[in-house]
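Summary for the steering committee. The consortium agreed at its last meeting that each partner would contribute one worked example illustrating the joint modelling workflow. Our contribution is presented below. We chose a case with several input lines so that the handling of multiple components could be demonstrated. No manual editing was applied between input and output; the record is shown as generated.
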Amino acid sequence: MITTYPQAISGPRVLPYLAVASILAGAGALFMALAWSPADANQGDLVRIMYVHVPAAWLAYLSFVVVFLASVAWLWGRWPLADAIAVASAEIGVMFTGLALVLGSIWAKPTWGVWWTWEPRLITTAVMFAMYAGYLILRSLSSDFDRRATRAAVVGAIAVLNVPIVHLSVTWMNALHQLPSVLRPGPPALDGRMLSTLVVCVIALTIFYAYCMVMRVSIERARSPRP
Amino acid sequence: MSGGVEFVVAAYAVTAIVLVGYLVSLRARSR
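What follows is the complete predicted structure of the assembly.
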């Protein structure tokens, strides 16, 4: 079946609200990250890279958990919307994973002295990036909607194992990357203002994710051969 | 700001380029 893009895809009504919320939250996050939050006692202003690096990594986690849930939903009920959500979230997750890797590299150079080193967190994150990039490539191998969606869903349901592996890799092996500071047992090991800035940055990026998801899902639904 | 500002600037510039670039790609694909 030939699928074509429509001339125009009318965006869902929620998009303008998400756009405004994203801009406002982004502006607030930027102010807190670059001006309001204090410099670190050891790293100085380099710690400000944390406010983009960590949210990018967390949004990658969220994206791939959504891929998992949507994949299970497709395998369970064969709902086309579930497949659209899975591919949308996978694409955005690959973007966030790539961004987290690049930002981590920029942070590593002045703090570790190298752009890249073969240590557990970096390797597992690179593997996660490659697996989800493979997921997107896999989707292009078949034009049959059901077959493509089912193959992708199986991969999407399994590949989520990457998320706990990446997150816990720093605790399993002798890692150069620092241990989790927030998502860990016990209270966060962060200054109060740094923690609140990080939370606002995560919220801002999550709203951005929601905006991208709504838009990407509507694109996928419009090009899909099934209603 | 203290030392390493160029790395901070690079990190935020890369973030802006990637996020805006992705938004532009979505806009282009939705037309």
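Residues 5-29 of chain B form the longest helix (25 residues). The mean pLDDT of chain B is 90.
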